[in-house]
């Protein structure tokens, strides 16, 4: 047990598992590094985090996580540059969003230093796990869940904040086909859609399975009232290019405020691309697909980076998007990745050294 | 280890904790019996359940329950009659609903015999824990959650079904004051509101806390579109009596199909009470409160049984309900409790011996 300046105690693993990992063939989020960070909320306060070997957690069956879905998470990545320096991308935004989610789910907010110091120390300890292959990265999963006990439907009195690290390959493989959903919905007005709350994801699984059976990978969610507006995908915000204008829906209490999305907007502007943040109707997208003005659609998120959509389905019809020589998606993806991997100037001050 | 006919293995506790329990002062769902039932889903099938001492569960931090909210539950009660015979109330309905929730949350459905046999054997083993005090009961909590691992937002490949038992006192203490909610919502059209999914409850905690700060115990949810229709409360369906008609909202994909609610309707009819199942507008309830035709409002659910509402708040105004000599609520509550405790004829075949 060493103790660092920040009082985070570190218990190192006796034997690393890194030799067992095939870094050339990583799936997404299925291999975990040697260590994890654990921080408990008890007696009204977050206790000092501890770093320890990746290990199982013991919970009573009456812990509220099992019953009332009180859980939130974040998704981030760590990147290594040519000089082996480690970088994060806008990590303070993840911390801020974690606390926005926490508030909505009646979970106590986490102090910034516990998040940032814990994160950096954990990554440093497991830095050999950061994949070097292009398209792979160290996926970071901070999460909080209710450990407090009882069958009364009310907020727990105890929580655990954990960070796990997972060296990961690409989120999607192959061409991305999406289905515009008209029956099921992801979130309600006044609901929890803007929070990265566990239950928002479980609710998407069944409709997504139905879409997968029809040959799509993802559902594009629309509003729950008339299914008139395009909102977002499972774990991505959506961009649509009509002629030379790049459009994305405004965030709302139904839509996650994606960090990739809000980074793409200023980069696009810097690229001289006209952007619009406004409601997008399904009707206009279908119309644009028919008349040829729909040039691109892509998803944007930490896990999927920028994922061009090859085809969208709507009311039993598939609409293929053109294959462009030089797409907005590829230009923007290069710009954002070059910032993340420290291969380009950090115009907006987004890079954060570990 | 004994093995029963149904092949459910039973490992008994070495020492009961029952002596530590104050059965005269039970809170709701905070004391647990000596045993629990555990059943694992692995390799595409539910394995035979096991009964074992109530104990902690060990899970990897990457178990999907922590990340994607894949969890569902049920709430039931066991009752003891004057002859110490044990009864359940419509348990097959709980099993059916568990599987309806399972399907929507992409959780594998559970065979009826695992649910029913497991439940009965567990209750028999812990039958001394069934409280005898009027208003107390053995609360039963069957639940399923995702134990399968990984950070890919997709259904887990492994699950646990558990039943825990909690001798419990009343859910509410004192007069129930509710607030009709106009900003936050519980569920979306096409969402998961009809499922007893964990995330539906966590999403209610923050708005409920705000209501509690204003002096209410519960929120009455309205539709997420215009907040025009009264839907249900945190863990209760809602009934409104205007003059001599008892009205409750129709179930939908936003509202839980409560077993208490659907038992009250035929009992009310048998009592000669006119019932209506139709949309209830907030406007008509407020209007009825003002003109004196609103006689009663009550919540109905397994935990809360029938809980008369003393006051509802709407747009900063509190409306008190009259105190009636002989209310529908008390008549219906007596009828339903008498069936549950085997003190009255079981007209509808709802009682189920253990
Ligand atoms: C529902 C949802 N939308 C959008 C995103 C994209 O957000 P970000 O770019 O911050 O990863 C995510 C990502 O994790 C998500 O879960
Ligand atoms: C959201 C919600 N509505 C209504 C009810 C009432 O259902 P039941 O009568 O089956 O207990 C519950 C109960 O558990 C509930 O969680």
Automatic annotation (TrEMBL), chains A, B:
<dbReference type="InterPro" id="IPR043132">
    <property type="entry name" value="BCAT-like_C"/>
</dbReference>
<comment type="function">
    <text>Acts on leucine, isoleucine and valine.</text>
</comment>
<feature type="modified residue" description="N6-(pyridoxal phosphate)lysine">
    <location>
        <position position="196"/>
    </location>
</feature>
<dbReference type="InterPro" id="IPR043131">
    <property type="entry name" value="BCAT-like_N"/>
</dbReference>
<dbReference type="InterPro" id="IPR001544">
    <property type="entry name" value="Aminotrans_IV"/>
</dbReference>
<dbReference type="GO" id="GO:0009099">
    <property type="term" value="P:L-valine biosynthetic process"/>
</dbReference>
<dbReference type="InterPro" id="IPR036038">
    <property type="entry name" value="Aminotransferase-like"/>
</dbReference>
<protein>
    <recommendedName>
        <fullName>Branched-chain-amino-acid aminotransferase</fullName>
        <ecNumber>2.6.1.42</ecNumber>
    </recommendedName>
</protein>
<keyword id="KW-0032">Aminotransferase</keyword>
<keyword id="KW-0100">Branched-chain amino acid biosynthesis</keyword>
<comment type="similarity">
    <text>Belongs to the class-IV pyridoxal-phosphate-dependent aminotransferase family.</text>
</comment>
<dbReference type="GO" id="GO:0052656">
    <property type="term" value="F:L-isoleucine-2-oxoglutarate transaminase activity"/>
</dbReference>
<dbReference type="InterPro" id="IPR018300">
    <property type="entry name" value="Aminotrans_IV_CS"/>
</dbReference>
<dbReference type="InterPro" id="IPR005786">
    <property type="entry name" value="B_amino_transII"/>
</dbReference>
<keyword id="KW-0663">Pyridoxal phosphate</keyword>
<keyword id="KW-0028">Amino-acid biosynthesis</keyword>
<keyword id="KW-0808">Transferase</keyword>
<dbReference type="GO" id="GO:0009097">
    <property type="term" value="P:isoleucine biosynthetic process"/>
</dbReference>
<dbReference type="GO" id="GO:0009098">
    <property type="term" value="P:L-leucine biosynthetic process"/>
</dbReference>
<dbReference type="InterPro" id="IPR033939">
    <property type="entry name" value="BCAT_family"/>
</dbReference>
<comment type="pathway">
    <text>Amino-acid biosynthesis; L-leucine biosynthesis; L-leucine from 3-methyl-2-oxobutanoate: step 4/4.</text>
</comment>
<dbReference type="GO" id="GO:0052655">
    <property type="term" value="F:L-valine-2-oxoglutarate transaminase activity"/>
</dbReference>
<dbReference type="GO" id="GO:0052654">
    <property type="term" value="F:L-leucine-2-oxoglutarate transaminase activity"/>
</dbReference>
<dbReference type="Pfam" id="PF01063">
    <property type="entry name" value="Aminotran_4"/>
</dbReference>
<comment type="pathway">
    <text>Amino-acid biosynthesis; L-isoleucine biosynthesis; L-isoleucine from 2-oxobutanoate: step 4/4.</text>
</comment>
